[in-house]
Amino acid sequence: MLDSDLVAQHRQELRRGSTSLACLALLATTPDYGYNLLGRLAELGFEIEANTLYPLLRRLDKQGLLTFAWDTSDARPRKVYSTSPEGVELVALLREDWDRISQALHQIGQDS
Amino acid sequence: MSLTDLYVAATVSRTPVKQREEVEADLRAAIADAIDARLDAGDLADVPERASALETAVLNDLGDPDRLAADYADSPLMLIGPRLFLQWKRLTILLLWIVLPIVAALIPFGMWLGGEPVGAIIGSTIGGTLTVGVHLVFWVTLVFAVMERAGTEPEELSEPWTVERLKESPDVRVSGVETGFALATLAITAGLIVWQQMWPWATNAAGEGLPVLSPELWAFVLPGLLLVMAVEAVAVIVRQVRGRWTMGDWWLTVVLDVVTLVLVAIPVLQHDLLNRELFAEIGWPDANTTITLEQAEWAVLLVVAAVCVADVWGSWTRARRSAIA
């Protein structure tokens, strides 16, 4: 029987990195603010805590992969992020890598 | 001030000044959005102070403000990370090995020249060596913590690892030189114990020989020590035949060292290690020195203790290096 902690640890390692890719890809289709993005990620099965997502968005913004504008239409001002052209370029690159890895993993199963 | 105000203030106070305004607005919106979402979802609908209960729940989810601030600022939550850890460890151990023996030798030497009493010399040597060791570890760690934050790469501190380094690692096999040295030391020590009794170099007025160690010790302590040395000699030979150290060797070493220490400590505590008759005959310690025989006995015990500790430590490192799980 697999130890659930062990599974959680390996899952976390596997998912690390995919979250930022998912954020960039989601924000490339529709610009959004932090809390709403959290919900969209959860719907797609990406489990990420608010206290991880907000610093992550800030980091991606510093790296020039995201841009943001303050949305003041609501009662409280919110940062609305969208993926920059560089971010879109990176998403395309990383997607190719992801597909290659996924293909390779499938192949391993079929060869043996 | 509301809980949110306190939380935001705690986070922002640990954020770089330039980012504060932005992080504060971001965080307030995040907290308010999370509370609204929970209100809409109907969380805690039957709790009387619902708004503040939801606020508490959201802030608990966000967690330690120090951690959040560090994540926002992208600053490391560790003193020295895995990139530099090995370099830090090696340098710290190397410096301790070089500096501490020098300090431990210089302090007593200097105080001895200054004519300080033995007790003060021992106390200052232990205290001074400890102080220097603590300082050394602290300053090396501080420099590495700064380098960690400055983003220093390990390649800047030392050459990359190559197989050449393997040759520098100690051999785990038991060498003939090591065995020969251990047997010679045991033989000489046992020989000295017997020799000082059988062929004493001083005699009293009646022409009887006066050994250095109290003759009373032959009742129990000295035969005990000789027995310990015999067991040790057998263990050394068995180890040479086997070719490597085991954890069993280490346990045996610990037991033999503890027994040795106890055997030497008993006469020291009873002020009966050195032969009082001999020292009365040769007239030492005389008026020119402040040293007493008790202090000399304590010094002998300290030397024996130091040798035992070094022995336990040395056999631990060897046994651990070559032990097969």
Number of helices of chain A: 5
Work out the helix count of chain B. Answer: 11
Number of domains of chain A: 1
Based on helices, strands and strand pairing, what is the structural class of chain A? alpha+beta
CATH architecture of chain A, by name, is: Orthogonal Bundle
Mean pLDDT of chain B: 88
**Amino-to-carboxy terminus distance of chain A:** 24 Å
Query: Oligomerization state of this entry?
Result: heterodimer
For the CA atoms, what is the radius of gyration of chain A? 17 Å
Task: Report the order of strands and helices of chain A.
Answer: HHEHHEEH
Number of strands of chain B: 2
The CATH topology name of chain A reads Arc Repressor Mutant, subunit A
**What is the N-to-C succession of helices and strands of chain B?**
HHHHHHHEEHHHH
Taking strands numbered 1, 2, ... along the chain, how are they ordered across the largest sheet of chain B?
A: 1-2
Short description:
The complex is a heterodimer of chains A (112) and B (325). Chain A is of the alpha+beta class.
Q: How would you describe this protein?
A:
The complex is a heterodimer of chains A (112) and B (325). Chain A is an alpha+beta fold. Chain A has a single domain (15-111), classed as Winged helix-like DNA-binding domain superfamily/Winged helix DNA-binding domain (Arc Repressor Mutant, subunit A). Chain A contains five helices and three strands; from the N terminus they run H-H-E-H-H-E-E-H. Chain A has a three-stranded antiparallel β-sheet with strand order 1-3-2. In chain A, helix 2 crosses helix 5 (85-111). The model of chain A has no long low-confidence stretch (mean pLDDT 89). Chain B is mostly helical and 325 residues long. Chain B has three domains: 3-73, no CATH class; 82-166; 172-322, no CATH class. Helix content of chain B is 69%, strand content 1%. Chain B contains eleven helices and two strands, in the order αααααααββαααα. Chain B has a two-stranded antiparallel ribbon with strand order 1-2. In chain B, helix 2 (20-41) packs across helix 3 and helix 9 (247-269) packs antiparallel against helix 11. The longest helix of chain B is centred in the middle third of the chain and has 33 residues, at 118-150. Chain B is elongated, with a radius of gyration of 33 Å. Chain B starts with a helix and ends with a helix. The A-B interface holds A 33-36, 39, 49-52, 54-55, 58-59, 62, 70, 76-79 and B 23, 25-30, 32-34, 37, 61-63, 67-68, 71-72, 74.
